[in-house]
Design goal:
The protein has 350 residues and is mainly alpha-helical. The protein contains 14 helices and 5 strands. The chain folds into 2 domains: 58 residues; 269 residues, no CATH class.
């Protein structure tokens, strides 16, 4: 558009200049009329050129990490879909300590939160250092306590999605087989000991039971019981996801979750969060216990041979969509290695 306007403007100016030389061969009144018309045409083109640039400046989306912390989007109210073993403890801290989210939190509570090593001491503010208030009382969160849900638990959001969560979701996804094997090593996280009455007999049995965890959480109802590894949750529902549920989960992730991070790309995920919502970059945000341990494009991480070639088909499709959304967001908000360095420098980790 810019190139076209510039080109047309240049052509008009050339014609105008040419008319000066041709005027001597024309009647004076005709020459004057020609010059007047060309001047008017040039003015219209110049005005169009100006409007194009003004429109582009007016509608350009502000890019963060350039020292300007104003943001076109608000991160609040926050809904955090905490998929197990994807870096949830770290992301919970990031969100609760994010500028403007928990305005009623005291300095002591911030220190206690930073020192928390497990989600159990974060989720419902359990522990002797916390008051009886929950995070929903002091933070701008999507408050679902009346439905039995608490900040950052592993509950399914099936019937609550459309009314309460759509447009407010933030989550982070992890390569499915790596997520599963991480859970296996964490006391068989999400395994329904209440249903089976025993531990899983193998990695493969465990994997088939907790497969499609993220799809289940996005489409099914079910309150999680606490934060313990063996607490009942939809993630451990042994009924596998259907193709329709997977399709629905993909749709909900795309339309209802403005922010999707990727565990294996933790640094850029944090930079993207700030590019979208502003806020101050801080050191604790870049320290995830799961980040970088299981890149799908490398041999690092857990040895998947214990799964005997089995893969999590349903969460695999969701992860692929999450990766697509993530890459699109990086491009849209111009987050790259160079721009991310500014956030890391602000955080003091470079």
């Amino acid at each position: 558009m810019k190139a076209m306007a510039t080109s047309l403007l240049a052509c008009a100016m050339a014609l105008l200049a040419m008319s000066e030389f041709q005027a001597e061969d024309c009647d004076e009144s005709v020459a004057e009329s020609m010059r007047t018309e060309l001047l008017q045409s040039t003015a219209v083109l110049a005005n169009t050129h100006t409007r194009v640039h003004t429109h582009a400046r007016t509608h350009a989306r502000p890019v963060q990490l350039d020292g300007d912390k104003s943001s076109e989007q608000s991160i609040t109210p926050v809904f955090f879909l905490h998929i197990p073993k994807c870096g949830g403890t770290t992301l919970a801290k990031v969100l609760l300590l994010f500028d403007g989210v928990c305005s009623k939190m005291t300095d002591q509570e911030r220190e206690n939160l930073l020192a928390a090593q497990s989600f159990g001491s974060i989720g419902k503010r359990w522990g002797v250092n916390y008051s009886e208030d929950t995070w929903e009382d002091m933070c701008s969160l999507v408050d679902l306590r009346s439905s039995g849900y608490a900040f950052g638990d592993h509950s399914g959001i099936g019937s609550l999605y459309s009314k309460y969560i759509k447009g407010h979701g933030l989550t982070v996804l992890r390569q499915p087989e790596q997520r599963i094997l991480s859970g296996y090593g964490d006391a068989f996280h999400s395994w329904r000991i209440d249903l089976f009455g025993r531990k899983p007999s193998s990695h493969l049995e465990y994997a088939k039971v907790v497969a499609g965890c993220a799809v289940k959480m996005l489409t099914r109802d079910g309150q999680a019981e606490g934060q313990s590894s063996w607490g009942s949750s939809v993630c451990g529902d042994p009924v596998p996801p259907t193709n329709d549920e997977t399709t629905l989960a993909i749709e909900r992730l795309a339309e209802g979750f403005p922010y999707v991070g990727i565990t294996e790309e933790w640094t850029q995920s944090i930079c993207l969060l700030h590019a979208m919502f502003g806020g101050t970059c801080t050191a604790h945000e870049f320290a995830s216990e799961n980040a970088g341990s299981s890149s799908a494009n490398s041999t690092a991480g857990y040895d998947t041979s214990v799964l005997e070639g089995w893969t999590d088909e349903h969460d695999g499709k969701l992860y692929a969509e999450g990766m697509r959304l993530f890459q699109n967001s990086l491009q849209h908000f111009q987050v790259n290695t160079e721009s991310c360095m500014l956030c890391m420098q602000e955080a003091g980790v470079l």
